[in-house]
Specification:
By secondary structure, this protein is of the alpha/beta class. The protein has 21 helices and 11 strands. The strands form 2 sheets. Strands 7-6-5-4-3-2-1-8-9 form a 9-stranded mixed sheet. A two-stranded antiparallel sheet has the order 10-11. Residues 479-483 have low confidence and may be disordered.
């Protein structure tokens, strides 16, 4: 099977290489021909409707995604576009997804599409509300451990990795080596941008399978209030350098009670697009860590605003030519919480295997357990058996919106606090979320019940023969499915 994949990938790469170089000569005129070529060659790999949508976008010059596609071809090193289409589209999207689904059935547990891990706990900034700066230079994963994570992940079907921290680029040479040794994977690095230089830009383009997510939060004032004086100017300078070198990057945005307006303003979006950002990854502030300020959690009104803004900014006619996602408000499209290995999990710099980058509790470690053993551990099994934590996917999280679930799972599994500096009990963490959870619940119900929702085709444990037998058909989800 591996030999067949190799032959198929080689043929796909040859077609992509020829098509991309052709379209690059006159992107506007040749975009439709590129869509036709891709559809002809890859038509048997993905659903036909995907290619029909792609061809429709290619023909519609007023479509935001038409403009986005042109920007990818014009702004990025064409070798990066080609490599990412292979790594993300074929290795992860096609072969990886099939293997992940097969392994979920085989092992009766969650198996992820993405794995997050921290190469180091070290960080050269100290942002308000961020736990990473507390860690110091205490922990790092070795090169062998990082490769082991990726090798074990690929065996399960996982070909997409996000690197967090700490500041991952403290290990930038090691990361380049990891990416070079695993061209069948895609890597996205969350970074404060301070350590980006011209050589790293050249290295990124040489391996072709790395994208960056630069921390940036609105205006200079709103950004530097949380990230420190000068952080905004530094990030903007690095964006210019990346854009000049045709590198793939976007921004990472933590929205708080203080900055929601700034990070959703048209001026902010237009600025990052002009500077070359191809994606914007938004996430709700989580009050994690002993110094976390629960007053930074966005209000229910702001959360509703973010939900509506997200739909507006992604509108194909009136939106912005940039890929935007919000890990909290996009839960309705992925069937709720994706943590606990359902679609991703996190490994910290001490090797602790955690269900979520925001959930610092663990009952396994890469130095004592395999990744598959972790996915079948008591903590991860409780995630598997209890997802979704709410049938209203505007309330997906077992910490922020359903804190009773996190407390239960930590207690039942015997998981320990994996915070690297100050242990925080589940009771302490969840207590900071109770007020928001109670205030958001009725608003989320009102919004959720006001509109129809697409079927995400997600099969939860409760839908399996084992799950139905265990709950006896009496749980809320089963009763809902009977109606």
């Amino acid at each position: 099977m591996a030999e067949k994949h190799t032959v198929q990938k080689a043929a796909a790469r040859a077609v992509l290489h020829k098509a991309l170089n052709y379209v690059q000569k006159d992107p506007e005129a040749n975009l439709i021909k590129l869509a036709d070529k891709i559809s002809m060659f890859f038509g048997n790999l993905f659903p036909p409707e995907n290619f029909e949508k792609m061809k429709s976008v290619a023909k519609d010059t007023d479509n935001v995604w038409h403009q986005f596609a042109l920007s990818l071809i014009r702004d990025l090193d064409i070798k990066v576009v080609e490599q990412m289409l292979v790594s993300l589209g074929i290795d992860a999207g096609y072969y990886g997804t099939k293997t992940v689904r097969a392994n979920r059935e085989k092992y009766k547990c969650n198996v992820p599409f993405i794995i997050l891990f921290d190469p180091t706990s070290a960080c050269n900034l100290k942002c308000k509300g961020c736990w990473a700066a507390e860690y110091g230079h205490r922990q790092s994963l070795s090169n062998e451990e990082m490769q082991s994570i990726v090798s074990q992940g690929k065996e399960m079907g996982t070909h997409f990795y996000m690197l967090t921290g700490g500041e991952p680029l403290i290990r930038k040479d090691d990361i380049i080596e990891l990416a070079r040794n695993n061209r069948d994977c895609a890597f996205v690095i969350y970074t404060n941008a301070t350590l980006i230089d011209r050589k790293f830009c050249e290295d990124m383009n040489e391996v072709g399978n790395i994208g960056l997510a630069l921390s940036l939060e609105g205006t200079e004032e709103s950004n530097d209030w949380r990230r420190g004086e000068g952080a905004y100017k530094t990030t903007v300078e690095k964006m210019k350098l990346l854009h000049e070198n045709k590198c793939l990057f976007g921004v990472s945005v933590c929205y708080t009670r203080r900055n929601v307006d700034a990070v959703t303003a048209d001026s902010f979006m237009d600025e990052i697009i002009a500077k070359g950002a191809k994606y914007a990854l938004y996430f709700n502030y989580m009050p994690v860590g002993h110094d976390a300020d629960k007053e930074l959690i966005p209000t229910p009104a702001q959360r509703e605003y973010m939900y509506n803004w997200l739909k507006k900014v992604r509108n194909s006619k009136t939106g912005k030519p940039i890929f935007v996602m919000d890990f909290q408000n996009d839960a309705e499209y992925v069937g709720g919480c994706i943590a606990g290995g359902r679609n991703y999990f996190h490994i910290n710099s001490a090797g602790d295997i955690e269900p979520c980058v925001f959930i610092h509790y663990s009952d396994t470690n890469i130095r004592t357990h395999t990744l598959l053993e972790a996915l079948r551990s008591p903590l991860f099994t409780l995630y598997y058996k209890n997802q979704p934590f709410n049938d209203n996917h505007l309330r997906p999280c077992p910490m922020l919106e359903n804190p009773e679930y996190l407390k239960m799972m930590v207690e039942k599994s015997g998981a320990h606090s994996s915070d690297l500096v100050h242990e925080e009990s589940a009771d302490e963490l969840c207590a900071k979320c109770m007020e928001f959870a109670a205030a958001w619940a009725p608003e989320a119900e009102r919004i959720w019940n006001s509109m129809p929702h697409k079927d995400t085709h997600t099969q939860y444990y409760r839908d399996t023969p084992e799950g139905k037998k265990e709950c006896g058909g009496s749980c809320a989800g089963c009763n809902k499915n009977k109606d």
